């Protein structure tokens, strides 16, 4: 009698184990699908963003002029800091120069960018060049800017070339004399762009020739 009772239990146990495992496997299958969907969502998108983070387009182009290590002598000793000078421009006739100091290079760059946004200069771009020639002096630096024909390019060097490139100018001729300090040269370039007159206030040679006959007839 004992043998007949044991055999049914041995047959029932495997059935219980199979029924208990089958729902778990069925529940785990959708989880795997969800993980796959999450991996797909975190992958590269069609709009060019990676990792689900969209990169915003910057308003201004940035060009580094100089990163220098400066020291300040105090009662407690010398304080070592970094000085960054940056020029920014939107490519449509707006440029700015900023200088920032900090104990770290990244902090100095961020301060310089904020300072440049506070000191923006706007001028008119006519046919990818400036409207008229201008000559400016600043300290020991002298700068001369002259408009150029299409296809000439930016004929300049140093800090003046970087400012012209971020401002949106494509054809311009610049000649600089005097100081070799990039910050001084950048300041004289900013002063030159600020001295440019609007197009409405410029009297061209063609207007002068057309106006002279009318005035002479009226005087007669």
Describe the structure.
By secondary structure, the chain is of the alpha+beta class. It has a domain of 138 residues: Ribosomal Protein S5, domain 2 (2-Layer Sandwich). It is built from 5 helices and 8 strands, in the order H-E-E-E-H-E-E-E-E-H-E-H-H. The longest helix is centred in the N-terminal third of the chain and has 40 residues. The termini are far apart. The N terminus is likely disordered.
Largest sheet: 4 strands, antiparallel
The CATH topology of one domain is Ribosomal Protein S5, domain 2
What portion of the residues fall into strands of 2 or more residues? 25-35%
Query: Which strand order spans the largest sheet, edge to edge or round the barrel?
Result: 1-2-3-4
Ranges with pLDDT <50 over ≥5 residues? 1-27, 31-36
Helix/sheet category:
alpha+beta
**SSE order, one letter for each helix or strand:** HEEEHEEEEHEHH
Shape: elongated
Number of strands: 8
User: Which CATH class of one domain?
Assistant: Alpha Beta
What level of helicity do the residues show?
40-55%
